[in-house]
Amino acid sequence: MKTILFIEDESTLQKTVGQILEQEGYEIKGALDGETGLALAKREKPDLILLDLILPKLDGFEVLKGLKQDEATRSIPVIILTNLESSADVERALDLGASTYLVKANYELEEVVAKIKDILK
Amino acid sequence: MAFRKFYQQLNFVKQCRRYGLGLWQCPSFLVILIGLITIGAMLGIYFIANQYAQEPEIVALIILGVTAVLMIIGYFIIQGFNQLAEVSQMKSEFVSVASHQLRTPLSSLKWSLNLILSGRLKGFQEQEAQLKMMAETNQRMIDLVNDLLDVSRIEQGEMGLRPEKIDLLKLLNDLIGEYASLAQASNVDLEFEAEKNLPEVSADPRRIKLVIQNLIDNAIRYITGGGRVKIRLRRQNNFIRCEVNDNGVGIPKNEQKYIFHKFFRSQNIMKYQTEGTGLGLFIARAIIKASGGKIGFKSREGKGSIFWFELPIK
């Protein structure tokens, strides 16, 4: 079973996305802040990481940097799932190595699931 | 029509009030003032020059003096424009911050609805749990919109405070209980120390609660990797003083003067780690001032901050 790590401080959103992904047959790990998320990523080595950008303790950009600096986590695809959408933020995240950048408000839940399935295929 | 528009522009008092600027900061007034001084100076110099045609130094001195006055007024005009520009920039920043803040709960609600409507939630309990989370999210949006409404009330000078006798000690005890779980999750020790037998104060309990929530919330959120928040309540002369002391990231010196400004958010390292509208402290200050009290802070970057307020004993 493939594992997805979801780093997101909004717990409702985390549970909502988590439920639907579990139904799709994935194992979901959740972290509510950047520090815990990064540590969990290093320990669990998930197949995919969903990452918010505004996060307590360690923001999403720093988490992304940490993931890409570590040999063990470098190749894990990261989907940014956020509501920030200034081109500077998008560019910065993609430069740091994010695979995809999704603005939450612009997508239906099923579309996000489809993107995730597509990357994990 | 054109004349009326011209007249309206001349009516600087109304215009300055609309922009929320004092007369001496208001370009519309200052430009007219410069015009009047220039005309007056021209006429004055003409007569003086006629009288003192043999002593051009006097005429030159007067012209110099008038020019200096005009330059000073010009300086005020530039400052007025700067202030207007700053306000406008803060407003557009606010629109982006506020819409982002609303979008976070809104997108969460949207995906929850997506999930419920998809028919994937089979059991009643699953649906109920989802609806409960949605209700909380919805409440957060209401709180946010209430903050925005508070701001417009503050600006129109209609806070509508409902003062009653309140026991700050009890209020603080209740609030600190509410923050226990956030503090624990953030690795923050929440300490509370209060003098005994403090008299009651007269203030609007709902608003004062909001002030204290803002201070404690900020104190906890702007601590990285654990720390402590110490809250003290004591009597100082005819006031009850409440202090919230944290050992968090602190406020950079060059930003300290803006900290109570509407929509202001520090550019410190926490910008991407916390969400906020930059309204909390603005609202807090308005509430404390309208309650006859005082509010202030001391902060050192990297060391932490102390925010305090005082309410008069009645």
- Indicate the CATH class of chain A: Alpha Beta
The CA-CA distance between the termini of chain B, in Å, is 56 Å
The proportion of residues in beta strands of chain A is: 15-25%
Overall form of chain B: elongated
Can you give a write-up of this model?
The complex is a heterodimer of chains A (121) and B (314). Chain A contains five helices and five strands; from the N terminus they run βαβαβαβαβα. The model of chain A has no long low-confidence stretch (mean pLDDT 95). Chain A has a five-stranded parallel sheet, with helices on both faces. With 121 residues, chain A is an alpha/beta fold. Chain B has three domains: 2-86; 99-155, Signal transduction histidine kinase, dimerisation/phosphotransfer (DHp) domain (Helix Hairpins, Orthogonal Bundle); 164-312, Histidine kinase-like ATPase, C-terminal domain (Heat Shock Protein 90, 2-Layer Sandwich). In chain B, the strands form two sheets. Chain B has a five-stranded mixed sheet. A two-stranded antiparallel ribbon of chain B has the order 1-3. Chain B starts with a helix and ends with a strand. Classes of the chains: A alpha/beta (121), B alpha+beta (314). At the A-B interface, helix 1 and helix 5 of A face helix 4 and helix 5 of B.
Task: Annotate the secondary structure layout.
The complex is a heterodimer of chains A (121) and B (314).
Chain A: E1 3-7, H1 11-23, E2 27-31, H2 34-44, E3 48-51, H3 60-69, E4 78-82, H4 87-95, E5 100-103, H5 109-120
Helix pairs in contact in A: 2-3
Chain B: H1 2-10, H2 12-19, H3 27-51, H4 56-117, H5 124-155, E1 164-166, H6 168-185, E2 188-194, E3 201-203, H7 205-221, E4 227-236, E5 239-246, H8 280-290, E6 294-300, E7 304-312
